[in-house]
Design brief:
There is one protein chain. The chain is an alpha/beta fold. It has 11 helices and 11 strands. The strands form 3 sheets. Strands 3, 4, 5, 6, 9, 10 and 11 form a 7-stranded mixed β-sheet that branches. It has a two-stranded antiparallel ribbon with strand order 1-2. The protein has a two-stranded parallel ribbon with strand order 7-8. β7, α8 and β8 form a beta-alpha-beta unit. α1 crosses α3 and α2 packs across α3. The longest helix is centred in the N-terminal third of the chain and has 27 residues. It starts with a helix and ends with a helix.
């Protein structure tokens, strides 16, 4: 089908690499090459400059890329309208989510959606905020859920839900039994932090800088689960989403340090690529998420 061949061509053009395009499309490199060769034979023009490290569009390839994007967009719109006539949602969604959302919020939402629309294939990639933004920008992800803001011009950014951030400590920490903690009591503490690029790290860094806190020492983990376990083990204090530590707070493994006159809150966002039309499955998924959010 010519649409499949055009999709292969567009992916190769955007990835600048046959192998990377093949990985995204679940095609072998020879399979990708065959699609491109057939397309070049059909048009009677060379579409790509090939080199071992990279492929580039020729002048003819640049023209075809522009029109191929439009053709694929129109095909997707037609497909959505036909599916709506049949009152059936099918297809696939590759979702990217930062750790807090992907590990603690999305699973139950995905279960509800999968139960209602069993013919939709769902794939989830979890990473930090920067990684999810990159995946949506490169078209590896259909939709992204992030904990920090995104200011890229080629993305649409939509608020999803609020998230409460709290400071937590080990059970045996000197501050753990305080009813309220003054900001001055957080001076010269040992902090357990997420890695740079994480929305949680950006939020905690902003808080530390805004309150002009001196950090005695810090330890860095590349997952919120690692941060949580480090706090429970007595390594230091941390700032995490309440979603992450609900069970540990209830069991007394870790303690919340309520900061007087502070309610720490951040925004979760949904991001999509502006130039890529969303599938019907993706649109229905987002609609269901936003409706369930309003009902709470």
């Amino acid at each position: 089908m010519i649409v499949d061949t055009l999709r292969v061509f567009v992916t190769v053009a955007e990835q600048s690499h046959f192998s990377k395009a093949g990985e995204l499309l679940n095609l072998s490199q020879p399979g990708v090459s065959l699609h491109i060769r057939n397309l070049e034979n059909e048009l009677g023009a060379k579409l790509l400059h090939r080199s071992p490290k990279q492929v580039r569009l020729t002048e003819a390839g640049t023209i075809l890329y522009k029109h191929a994007k439009q053709i694929l967009a129109h095909f997707e719109e037609a497909n959505q309208e036909i599916q709506m006539l049949q009152d059936e949602v099918t297809g696939s969604i590759h979702i990217g989510a930062s750790f807090t959302i992907g590990e603690y919020i999305l699973p139950s939402k995905l279960a509800e959606f999968a139960n209602q629309y069993p013919q939709v294939k769902l794939q989830v990639t979890i990473g930090n905020t920067e990684e999810i933004i990159g995946g949506v920008k490169s078209n590896e992800l259909d939709i992204g859920f992030i904990e920090g803001e995104a200011h890229e011009n080629d993305l649409t950014v939509k608020p999803y839900m609020k998230d409460e951030m709290i400071i937590v400590s080990p059970a045996n920490h000197p501050l753990s039994k305080m009813v309220f903690v003054e900001q001055s009591m957080l001076q010269n503490q040992v902090w357990v932090l997420r890695e740079l690029g994480s929305g949680t790290r950006a939020f905690s860094d902003h808080f530390i800088q805004e309150e002009e806190l001196s950090v005695k020492r810090s330890y860095v983990f590349n997952s919120s689960q690692g941060v949580k376990e480090a706090v429970a083990s007595g390594l230091g204090i941390a700032m995490l989403s309440r979603w992450i530590v609900r069970k540990e707070l209830a069991s007394g493994e870790i303690y919340e340090l309520p900061i007087r006159h502070h309610h720490l809150e951040r925004q979760f966002y949904i991001i999509r690529h502006k130039e890529n039309p969303s599938s019907m499955a993706t649109n229905v998924f987002i609609q269901k998420l936003l409706i369930s959010r309003k009902e709470k």
